[in-house]
Amino acid sequence: MTLDVVILAAGQGTRMRSTLPKVLHRLAGKPMVRHVLDTARELEADRLHVVVGHGAERVREALAEYPVRFALQAEQKGTGHAVAQALEGLGDGKVLVLYGDVPLIRRETLAALLEEVDESRMGLLTVTLDDPTGYGRILRNERGQAVAIVEQKDASEKELAIHECNTGIMAMTASQLKRWLPRLSADNAQGEYYLTDIIAMAAAEGVVIATAQPADPLEVEGVNNRLQMAGLERAHQRHIAETLMTQGVALLDPSRLDVRGRLTCGHDVEIDVGCVFEGEVELGEGVRIGAHCVIRDSHIGAESVIEPHSVIEGAVAAGRNRIGPFARLRPGTRLAVGAKVGNFVETKNAEVGEGSKINHLSYVGDARLGRDVNVGAGTITCNYDGANKHRTDIGDDAFIGSNTALVAPVNVGRGATIGAGSTISKDVPDNALAVSRGRQIGKTDWARPTKKTRD
Ligand code: UD1
Ligand code: CA
């Protein structure tokens, strides 16, 4: 059977107090609705439908690269009305209803729910909560079969005492849905078309309502305000931290780690507090990351040490590198084995050869450094002439004295030496010395000026 996934994302999210549509607020660096879509894709859905309403244009834009069919719910008349907007586009197989503000639902939970669906059965995901306030309650008959859902606002005293709640997530066949949805009425406390009313219709037809529970209640937790958003973020991060620790990563404090993307680690990686990992980051065996580093889309090879407060993006460090503290590696940085980048050094589009060192206060951009090059403090590759970028090439074993400006395009030969304070704008041959600075003058018998006294 084919699978259509319908994701409801039309609500306003008033309590977020934000101009951004609720489903675009980010969890682990990714809009909530994208978490849901990515999970739906893992289920290999044939079609993904997103029901948009409030902020429809922004939601459409944010999902531009997803293969999604949008259905517009111009007025929010309830969850049943929302699903009905997608009805026309459905195939004739199974349908799964998800929510753009319930981001952590897992593939396994949904796959199990979908297993239950055929023309004589439907699946309903429920959760038992200590405090069920606000949720629809699951009504069961004397044989324990689920037969209806009653919303909080429509419930009797006795029904309010039920702790088994509707998560909202359910699965059925398209033909069931096409039969039931047009029969919904808005004759209830909220004057809305409740999706939940299809449960009683199913039961009346003798369709079995198979209920399932998520492995972890976090999976079905929705977000209505920023407090819940932050709570879910922390819980999610905690989960990631625990997974990493199980895989052998030493986290100095699992509550002070943020992964916004995917972090892959070898054995015996150690991560100090306050680090943020974004996009795809890979840390090789034995890598140590100091406190408060931000690392994005990078590969850090085995046995490297990143000292605190370093910011690394789009870089590859081959291994046994020492980076920071306070280093900034920008995209296109490639460090060969054992290369060092020290404090207050910025690199961009720079290839640094084996064993080479840029230890202090430098900018190296659009450059290639051979092996065992020593770049002195305060060296700048002047790569930009205001219009175009130019390259600097430094040969093996070259020594660049402190406070050197290398005016690109320029080549410094193998084993060449640049005197401190030089501005180098012409190529330097192999093994040569280049110095370009004003000669020092010396005056003996020099009397310092003295302060004038007023008479
Ligand atoms: C709904 C369920 C309730 C369940 C709870 C779980 C109904 C009638 N009730 O209640 O049983 O326990 O979720 O959180 O389904 N939405 C639209 N268009 C609409 C209305 C809602 O897209 O016209 C979307 C919202 O953006 C939201 C979701 O559907 O993402 C749920 O709507 P909400 O109004 O929060 O439903 P609840 O009252 O919480
Ligand atoms: Ca809700």
The first-level CATH class of the largest domain is given as: Alpha Beta
Work out the radius of gyration: 31 Å
- List cofactors, ions and other ligands: uridine-diphosphate-N-acetylglucosamine, calcium ion
C-alpha end-to-end distance: 106 Å
Helix content: 10-25%
**Unreliable segments of 5+ consecutive residues:** none
Q: Which strand order spans the largest sheet, edge to edge or round the barrel?
A: 15-17-20-23-25-24-21-18
Whole-number tally of structural domains: 2
Strand percentage, roughly?
A: 25-35%
What is the level-2 CATH architecture name of the largest domain? Alpha-Beta Complex
Describe the biggest sheet?
A: 8 strands, parallel, barrel
CATH superfamily of the largest domain: Spore Coat Polysaccharide Biosynthesis Protein SpsA, Chain A
The tally of beta strands, per DSSP, is: 35
